[in-house]
Design brief:
InterPro entries: UDP-glycosyltransf_plant, UDP_glucos_trans, UDP_glycos_trans_CS. Belongs to the UDP-glycosyltransferase family. It contains 19 helices and 18 strands. By secondary structure, the protein is α/β, with parallel strands linked by helices. Strands 1, 2, 3, 4, 5, 6, 9 and 10 form an eight-stranded mixed sheet that branches. A six-stranded parallel sheet has the order 15-12-11-16-17-18, sandwiched between helices. β17, α16 and β18 form a beta-alpha-beta unit. The protein is 40% helix and 16% strand.
Length: 483
């Protein structure tokens, strides 16, 4: 029996991170039969939809999901320190991971998959301290960076900067020159860790500084999408080899067949490229005042729309948004009657299925990286309305650097703890962006560019394409670890 190379994948506990890791794992296994993967799951106290997602996946012969969760009470206690929670939570799983690898995968024995040898650890960008375990088992580690190359470049830029100077951009209106960006970058839309030195930013950049200890960085992107950022990193020589491999987008919708059928039936009745789709990701939701402004904008714009409207979790609670029992409670009076036939308001929506539908002509998005890639690969232009994490940077990248999106408001920040009232984006701003996004014909430069990038995305995955080649180089590197 041939000895297989076994990889240990460790994603962060968020749904976007787990789903991306699953997609890249499936792509690797589909490409080479000499590999098998154990994907380790750490259950977050709030779950964020990870368990239903995992339960919805069909089984695959060389991929297993292993629960390495710690005691829920211990996990919940770690939540009290918000600055350190994610890092302490992941660090708290080290003994469980070590135990699993020691008992199930050793260098020369039969594992769950037959005869295997441990070839390496593939670690999420936040699971960096698991490098210690890879070292302990004498195998290399790789980073799976779930955001884009531009964010990696920005992170490495500020990691180097903090070693040479003290900076504070928390109140700054400066335009900065940052690695990976052609255009001056506004300090006010920097991701939180890069704004000033805080306990949480120190933790983040301590993690980034360890990237250079790894054997390679796998990025969820493709070379034609971010050529400037990739070239900047290659020229700067501050990172290990980079493998830009954009996996095929995930269209598995789990157990929500009924909702999906009703949405598709409605879309089937709409003309091509006529519908604007509004959806704000796993954690995206708005307060009633903001919901009303979006409704007014949609009604005034006159465009057909499909709106995934979600109820925010209770103030201060770390929970997922939920569906409204009755959305009329937050919508302007009579809105659903007046927009009947041209609009559809839903709760959860099957994002990839919707974006792939020919009726959809524009996407109002929070610019999460998974959503960004899905939109580009489906050829749908974006109206950028970022909420949190690195989404403001993604919006800047899409609007200013790549010309693949129009702006709703790039410097909008959502405060999850409800401490500060967030700005309300006016109906006028939203309506203006929707009209620009959905404009017909030659004047819509953004639509033209997105269609070109969609074609680049398709070619990248085909034989001889950039992602195809990058993936095979990575796999040969994995195999070399056991030979």
């Amino acid at each position: 029996m041939e000895t297989k190379a076994e990889l240990v994948f460790i994603p962060s506990p968020g749904l976007g991170h787990v789903a991306s890791a699953v997609e890249i794992a499936k792509l690797i296994l589909h490409t080479d039969e000499r590999l098998c993967i154990s994907l380790l799951i750490m259950k977050h106290p709030a779950d964020f939809g990870v368990q239903p997602y995992l339960q919805s996946l069909p089984s695959q012969s060389r991929l297993r999901f292993v629960d390495v969760s710690i005691d829920p009470k211990t996990a919940a206690q770690l939540l009290s320190n918000k600055d350190r929670f994610l890092y302490d939570f992941i660090d708290g799983h080290k003994h469980k991971v070590s135990e699993f690898v020691r008992n199930n995968i050793t260098s020369n024995s039969s594992s769950h998959f037959g005869s295997t040898r441990l070839a390496g650890f593939v670690l999420d960008m936040f699971c960096i301290f698991m490098i210690d375990l890879a070292n302990e088992f004498g195998v290399p580690s790789y980073i799976f960076f779930t955001s884009g190359t531009a964010f990696l470049a920005l992170s490495l830029h500020f990691e180097a900067l903090r070693n040479s100077s003290s900076y504070d951009y928390s109140e700054s209106d400066e335009e900065l020159s940052i690695l990976g960006f052609k255009n001056p970058y506004p300090a006010k839309i920097l991701p939180r860790p890069a704004k000033s030195v805080t306990p949480s930013s120190i933790l983040y950049f301590n993690g980034i500084s360890r990237f250079k200890e790894t054997k390679g960085i796998i990025i969820n992107t493709f070379a034609e999408l971010e050529p400037f950022a990739l070239q900047s990193l290659a020229d700067a020589k501050i990172a290990p080899p980079i493998y830009p491999i954009h996996p095929l987008v995930n269209s598995e919708e789990g157990d929500k067949k009924q909702e999906t059928e009703s949405i598709i039936k409605w879309l089937d009745e709409q003309p091509n490229s006529s519908v604007v789709f509004l959806c704000f990701g796993t954690l995206g939701s708005f307060e009633p005042e903001q919901v009303k402004e979006i409704a007014i904008a949609l009604e005034r714009s006159g465009h057909r729309f499909l709106w995934s409207l979600r109820r925010p979790p209770p103030k201060g609670k770390l929970e997922m948004p939920s569906n409204y029992d009755n959305s009329e409670e937050v919508l302007p009076e009579g809105f659903l009657d007046r927009t009947k036939g041209i609009g559809k308001v839903v709760g959860w929506a099957p994002q990839v299925t919707v974006l792939s539908h020919p009726a959809v002509g524009g996407f109002v998005s929070h610019c999460g990286w998974n959503s960004t890639l899905e939109s580009v690969c489906c050829g749908v232009p974006i109206a950028a309305w970022p909420l949190y994490a690195e989404q403001q940077m993604n919006a800047f990248l899409l609007v200013k650097e790549l010309g693949l999106a129009v702006e709703i408001r790039m410097d909008y920040f959502k405060d999850f703890e409800g401490k500060n009232p967030v700005d309300i984006v006016s109906a006028e701003e939203i309506e203006g962006a929707i009209r620009k996004l959905m404009a017909d014909g030659e004047e819509n430069e953004v639509r033209k560019r997105v269609k070109e990038m969609q074609e680049n995305c398709r070619i990248a995955m085909e034989e001889g394409g950039s992602s195809y080649t990058s993936l095979r180089l990575l796999i040969e590197d994995f195999i070399s670890n056991i030979s």
